[in-house]
Design a protein that fits this description.
The protein is of the alpha+beta class. The chain has 5 domains: 23-128 and 512-568, HUPs (Rossmann fold); 142-197 and 415-491, Rossmann fold (3-Layer(aba) Sandwich), CATH 3.40.50; 229-410, Valyl/Leucyl/Isoleucyl-tRNA synthetase, editing domain (Isoleucyl-tRNA Synthetase, domain 2), CATH 3.90.740.10; 575-739, Orthogonal Bundle (Isoleucyl-tRNA Synthetase, Domain 1), CATH 1.10.730; 741-804, Ubiquitin-like (UB roll) (Roll). 38% of the residues lie in helices and 19% in strands. The chain contains 28 helices and 32 strands. A 4-stranded parallel β-sheet has the order 2-1-24-25, with helices on one face. The structure holds one RNA strand.
RNA sequence: GCGGCGGUGUCCAAACUGGUAAAGGAGGGGCACUCAAAAUGCCCUGCCCAUCGGGCUUGUGGGUUCGAGUCCCACCCGCCGCACCA
């Protein structure tokens, strides 16, 4: 018997060195053109400090899938990089004066070191950081493509401004009126900014959700965010001012019930309609409210009558105008027709202000107002009696004929505001020329490199504006004086195409070769946290569609399958520095080895669910890996004999192969996969004395082979020991179907649904034989004697149920 | 308020299309090895009554079914998303 101990500290570096020296996980552009490719990708990490437990989890999940697919015959692209631009590094620079590049690259070095320690099977030749000029040169190139196509454009608009980060934000980065990053209440500012026309892609982003395998809740979030609603644009005319006010409504069928009209406080015409002190005061108080206060749906409806009227286009009635803060300038036209009888918000307002409430849809069962369900129209002239759904169509058609309205679709999605007044980001590659306005920097002058500066502190404009030498340049058109754009890009631009760069990361002629990218893409399995459900995942889909339109790629969706992993908690709580309950992957790996850490995280529960970290639990997993190791050592010392007839242990091994293949291959159930290997190893130790040497060798080799996707170092070492080969070069084992079924099966016998006995039945016995064997059971006979058997249910190989009365 | 997901031993959890509830791990207990301890190995471990044995058990209450953790209805609790979007 061997005295060797399981020593991950010596095994793990050994195999990591083999993989690094031999470039085991590297794939080539030729591989991309082969039929059987797979692209397994985890979300791009933001390098800050050192990796946390969530990183360990996401790469452990992804790596197990990558290994499994390789061994089932696929060429697998599994790359790594860093989302290296961004505010945290810049804020660090403001505090310490250290260049963001230095702190970022120090973090990258630490991330890289740990990823290698974890033994993740990465093709390191493709590694990049998004802050490297050789990467962002292409980010700029893509921006210019977008500019050429009119997808990138500048406009003056009310935008979200974070006073703490001193920059504008995209709508997606404002959560409940607060900055997504720092939690500061955002302000509204009128500024000229750069946008991507993502709204042009709204319908495609919505419709193509049908064609991708993503978790339902992520699709729902994207649908909600896009917020498509169908209705009509209807024009209300104000006689007094001679102005037309179009509104968007989803309920043109209720037009006859529109008894008043409301403008948002931000609407530019409010003061033209009425500039009384009362109105001015209301605007002041409404506009000074935080968006959170204003957004509270339970808030009392407030507003002021404007003393003007508009004409309801369907019945010619004059209806009063109000300004009220429950109407939002950002949605629709900033004005609404109010139908209090059939809209809860309008109803509340009408009650407060004593406006007429006119029902135009008849409640089917005499429900109270406001009634928002379906029914036939009333008080609606020639549409009376028409079911409201039909009336929707008829009224819209009629309005269109009269030139008073038209069918219309509205979206909640806004264009993506991509410019940031910060330093540590990708420079926007344009200049502002006095003669020619905005001019793209020519391709041969890319990248526009980020200059080094002294003072990173934000001052309401980009810190780059202070870099005079850099800012002042010449116009590529006329050679005259021009100033460089000083805003940088939102870091989400960097991460909206990185998966394409990985396909051909060393290409210096183009961001990628189309044939190569088309070979790998779309990503077969994308893995990451649900926190990116809207931001990154929507932007990346948008980029992909825009690039497909430019014929730069030949597919419409970047991520065919998405897996969102749950969070690892400790003591049921989120790990956080303030709670002092953080488990650092570095410490765990140093103490137990990477294999134990990885297996444990994959074992605490299905990776899609959360899992609770327990210090005792990881000891248990470490014990299991030691047992597997000992099984391999002992098996390797046994004679290598042919197995005459397969016994229980061999059957168990085939059972485990079958179980892991289905659990890992079909549903990412890493926890039950590992449990199956634990069972196999337990069985191995139990049968150590009784099983034939050949069986023990086979079972130990199988355990090593099956644990490899989760514990690659131990899997490699143990497999080499017992089977004398490199496990990653071995095909994934196949279970022998004949060994999955035993000669006899245990069948449950129930009487009236209650379990009374279990009997052994030959496999494949007829229903009659199975029933007879059940009937022969002494225990069962006693129950059957109590009455008459009315009915017998036989499930072959499973159970017999006698219904006795 | 609307939508989604979930609630199973002391804890983390398993159970494919309805068919042996609790696999596996942790924790607890016992035994072996040891002068002893650690490590390791083996066994027991849902609850109740008990002698064989029997009864009960998947948040609560009902229903469908020969049979329900699984399907249906109502309710309670938890998490996530949306929410004055016209």
């Amino acid at each position: 018997m061997s005295e060797q101990r399981y020593d991950p500290q010596s095994i793990e570096p050994k195999w990591q060195a083999v993989w690094a020296e031999e470039g085991t996980w590297e794939v080539s552009n030729d591989d991309a053109r082969q039929a059987d490719t797979a692209y397994v990708l985890e979300m791009l990490p933001y390098p800050s400090g050192e990796p946390h437990i969530g990183h360990l989890k996401v790469y452990s999940v992804g790596d197990s899938i990558a290994h499994y697919r390789r061994r089932t015959g696929r060429k697998v692209l599994h790359p790594m990089g860093y989302d290296a631009f961004g505010l945290p590094a810049e804020n660090h620079a403001i505090r310490t004066g250290q260049h963001p590049r230095e702190s970022t690259e120090a973090s990258i070095a630490e991330f890289r070191r740990q990823f290698r320690d974890w033994g993740i099977s990465i093709d390191w030749t493709r590694e990049f950081g998004t802050h490297e000029p050789r990467y962002y040169r292409w980010t700029q190139w893509l921006f210019l493509k977008m500019l050429e196509r009119g997808i990138a454009y500048r406009k003056d608009a009310a935008v979200n401004w974070c006073p703490n980060d001193a920059t504008v934000l995209a709508n997606e980065q404002v959560i409940d009126g607060k900055c997504e990053r720092c939690g500061t209440e955002v302000e509204s500012r009128q500024l000229e900014q750069w946008f991507f026309k993502i709204t042009d892609y709204a319908d495609r982003l919505l419709d193509d959700l049908e064609h991708i395998e993503w978790p339902a809740h992520v699709k729902t979030m994207q649908r909600n965010w896009i917020g498509r609603s169908e209705g009509a644009q209807v024009v209300f005319h104000c006689e007094e001012l001679g102005t037309d006010y179009p509104v968007f409504t989803t309920r043109p069928d209720t037009l006859f019930g529109a008894t008043f009209f409301v403008l948002a406080p931000e609407h530019p015409d409010v003061l033209k309609l009425n500039d009384s002190p009362e109105v001015r005061e209301y605007l002041n108080s409404a506009l000074s409210e935080s968006s959170e206060e204003r957004g509270d749906e339970h808030k009392e409806k407030t507003g002021v009558a404007l003393g003007r009227t508009v004409t309801n286009p369907v019945n010619g009635k004059q209806i009063p105008m109000y300004v009220a803060d429950y109407v939002l300038m950002e949605y629709g036209t900033g004005a609404i027709m109010a139908v209090p009888a059939h809209d809860t918000r309008d109803f509340e307002f009408a009650e407060n202000f004593g406006v007429e409430i006119r029902p135009v849809v008849e409640p089917s069962g005499g429900e109270e107002l406001p009634f928002t369900a379906d029914g036939p129209l009333v008080n609606s002239g020639r549409f009376d009696g028409v079911p409201n759904r039909d009336a929707f169509e008829q009224i819209v058609d009629w309005l269109a004929e009269e030139g008073k309205g038209e069918r219309s679709v509205n979206y909640r999605l806004r264009d993506w505001l991509l410019s940031r007044q910060r330093y540590w980001g990708c420079p926007i590659p344009v200049v502002h020329c006095e003669q020619h306005g905005i001019v793209a920097v020519p391709d041969d002058q890319l990248p526009v490199e980020l200059p080094d500066i002294e003072d990173y502190a934000p001052k309401g404009r980009s810190p780059l504006a202070a870099a005079e030498e850099w800012v002042n340049t010449t116009c590529p058109e006329c050679g005259g004086h021009a100033r460089r754009e000083t805003d940088t890009m939102d870091t989400f631009v960097d991460s909206s195409w990185y998966f394409l760069r990985y396909c051909d990361a060393l290409n210096d002629e183009a961001p990628w070769d189309r044939a190569v990218a088309d070979g790998w893409m779309p990503v077969d399995q994308y893995i990451g946290g649900v926190e990116h459900a809207i931001l990154h995942l929507m932007y990346a889909r948008f980029f992909t569609k825009a690039l497909a339109d430019m014929d730069l790629i030949g597919f419409q969706e970047p991520f065919a399958n998405l897996f969102t992993q749950g969070m690892i908690t400790r003591g049921g709580a989120k790990m956080s520095k303030s709670k002092g309950n953080v488990v650092s992957p570095g410490d765990i790996v140093a103490r137990y080895g990477a294999d134990t850490a990885r297996c444990y995280i994959l074992y605490v529960g299905h990776p899609a669910e959360g899992g609770d970290w327990s210090d005792d639990g990881i000891d248990g997993l470490h014990r299991f890996l030691s047992r597997l190791w000992r099984a391999a050592v002992e098996a390797s010392e046994l004679p290598d004999e042919e197995v005459a007839s397969p016994g229980e242990l061999t059957r168990k091994a085939h059972w485990a192969i079958d179980k892991v293949t289905r659990d890992l291959g079909e549903r990412f159930a890493t926890h039950t996969s590992i449990a199956a290997v634990i069972e196999l190893v337990n069985e191995w130790h139990r049968s150590r004395e009784s099983a034939a040497p050949g069986e023990l060798r086979f079972a130990a080799a199988t355990a090593a082979s099956l644990i490899f996707p989760f514990a690659p170092h131990l899997g490699s070492e143990a497999y080499e020991l017992v089977a004398g080969a490199r496990v990653w070069e071995e095909p994934w084992p196949e279970a022998d179907p004949s060994l999955l079924v035993s000669d006899t099966v245990e069948v449950v016998v129930q009487v009236n649904g209650k379990l009374r006995d279990r009997v052994a039945v030959p496999a494949g016995a007829s229903e009659e034989d199975q029933e007879q064997l059940a009937r022969d059971s002494e225990k069962v006979a006693g129950y059957l004697a109590e009455g008459e058997v009315r009915k017998t249910i036989v499930v072959p190989g499973k159970l017999v149920n006698f219904v006795v009365a």
